[in-house]
Amino acid sequence: MRTHKLASLALAVSAAFSTSILAQEAETIQKKETALEQITVTAQKRTQSIQEVPISVATLSGEKFESLFSGGEDILALAVRVPGLYAESSNGRVAPRFYIRGLGNTDFDLAASQPVSIIMDEVVMENVVLKSFPLFDVQQVEVLRGPQGTLFGRNTTAGIIKFDTVKPTQDLEGYAKAGFGSYGTMNFEGAVGGGLTDELSARLSVLSQERDDYIDNAATGQKDALGGFDEKAYRLQLLWEPSDDFSALLNVHGRELEGTASIFRGNVFNKGENGLNASYDRDTVSYDSDLLGTGADNNPQEYDGFGTSLKLEYDMDDVTFTSISAIETADGYSLGDVDGDSIASQNFVTQDKLNDLEQYTQEFRLSSNTTDAMNWQVGAFYYDASFNVTSVDGFFGATTVFHDNKTWALFGQTSYQVNEKLNITGGLRYTHDDKSLIVGEQNVDGFAVLIGFAGVQEYDDIHVDDGQMSYELSANYRVTDDMSVFARYANGFRAQTIQGRDVAFEGSPSVAEAETINSFEVGVKSDLLDDTLRLNAAAFYYTVDDMQFSAIGGGNNFTALVNADKGEAYGFEVDAQWLATDELTFTAGYSYNHTEIKDDTLTVAPCGTSADAGFTGYCTVLDPRADGFSASIDGNPFPQAPESIFNFTARYTVPMGDDGEFFIFTDWAFQGETNLFLYEAVEFTTDDNFEGGLRIGYENFEHNYTVALFGRNITDEDNVKGAIDFANLTGIVNEPRILGVEVKYSFY
């Protein structure tokens, strides 16, 4: 298989160049630099060297991060840019779905929970819409692989992606960056900060991204009908430091998004074949829906959000008290011509509205602040969120469901330096989670009600709650000054989930019980060759009991939450960076994930299968079908879990006198075999997907400016990222090639 060839290639390249991508960290290499930059992380809510943390952690910052987003990309650009990390969405630039080590959730519902938690400036973004807040003026991204239930709570069974933005200082500093590219793509980003008084400093950051519509609608003859977006975001931070012992950081941020939701492309697979067929055209779709009554809908999308947080820190000699209070809000909608074509018999068009999302979180922490052998921290956490979702269908009408979720937790962690080589860490967390769903108005203005096909149903309110303990134990042993090994056992859980979207189509809500993960990993971290080579690796094994899945599709297109008896996975990651010379830097990384569903009784209805109609579906199912219709998924890989990921970067510079340098930077990412759904089918398996980026430019050190030509997806690959399996062979593909120019000026 080509996947194994890629794996062999990845390991050969890694060995030949002694590279991997630990951390996919800052690749900005200062002139005449002779050692790699030391990286600090806050993976354990303390500032520590990444080489001392007994967790598999990768980071992104600097040029690598800037390059990924130069073409106006959203948060999905992080997919496969770190070993073990994947992301996709069927909701455009909102509601991304993340996967770490193969563990994630394919549910497209706006109330869906995910086992990968997004933390922005120390605030959890629980709802899928909040997870999509634009990335700008970012100091560092940390990817914590494996369960993080002790310090970060439930719904972190796969891991965490942690974003830290640049904070205010007393020094006047800032930057402005503008980029212009294909399809009218424009990207502006800037920040300015400094001291307002001796005690008060501020930083204002802004982002503006837009792209013109470039996809034609063949059904209506409309040119440039969809594919564009216009997004604005801002962040204002105020830091008050009246004394050496106390600080208060206020963060106020918001966004506005208007554009096109996901582009569903109907009939782009041939039954019995793998890969896009001849009818696929990146620049053309055929949509005939008019759900809004204003003409062809063309998949519009609008969202806005606002949030604020306040972090207080008080240093009480040997103990530091921390309080983080935060409020996040969001509203908006996405409309999708889900079948992706203009065939009247397959006209599935829906609109989901998120209304009145309010999330409140409060965390208190006490942590030791000494140089003693033992360090500790204890804390309490509270979470309260509510929102409603209105699903609008042209036949059934509009139906609203109300969601509410409350969580509280107590946690503690301690680390003990046994001797100069051995450090042991242990932690506990008790979490209680409470969820409810109430069905509101049903089938409003629905044609189905008028003809007697549907009616208002009686649904009992649903209330579920659960309390569980999470725990971890790890050890880090420093073999030499430049190498350490670690071992970690971690337990965590993802809270119970309620799915109520099918109420809009007279389907009953479904509930998935909490899942529990037990994870084991061992690893090595090293700085070699006089600190010019950083090479880290980790191997893992985990099991998930009562694993939550979303069974989507079948003839009625119902979404049902189910629990598999068990899920099992094992694999490894290799991360490294090599400063080959003062002018040449390589990074690379590789991950392998084997995932397997273990439940010999669990079946799903694949690709539009309807036993009532005697129809076996639109695709070529590879799983056993004992009754001729339902597919047994026992032994299948997790959905959207790439078996392998390989990424590679290289940066070469040519000094231009004492004032600047010419540079070439390239980044590549490869994705191995990936099964899109719970069942296996010929049409819905991808392999050997890859994308590359390129930056060529000049950086002036004396005047602090950079001018560069850039390209994203420079080979213009057409990669399948997702599919719709209930109406026809509909696919979702990646972003097109974007070529452009970027200018950046910084001041200090």
Automatic annotation (TrEMBL):
Primary location: membrane
GO BP field: iron ion transport
Cellular localization per UniProt: Cell outer membrane
PROSITE patterns: TONB_DEPENDENT_REC_3
Superkingdom field: Bacteria
Pfam families assigned: Plug, TonB_dep_Rec_b-barrel
Domain TonB-dependent receptor plug stretches: 50-160
Membrane topology: Multi-pass membrane protein
Keyword DNA-binding: no
UniProt feature coiled coil, ranges: none
Domain TonB-dependent receptor-like beta-barrel: 276-713
Signal peptide interval: 1-23
InterPro entries per UniProt: Beta-barrel_TonB, Beta-barrel_TonB_sf, Plug_dom, TonB-dep_rcpt-like
Alphabetically ordered keywords of this record: Cell outer membrane, Ion transport, Iron, Iron transport, Membrane, Receptor, Signal, TonB box, Transmembrane, Transmembrane beta strand, Transport
GO cellular component, one term: cell outer membrane
UniProt keyword annotation of Transcription present: no
Similarity annotation: Belongs to the TonB-dependent receptor family.
Annotated protein name in UniProt: TonB-dependent receptor
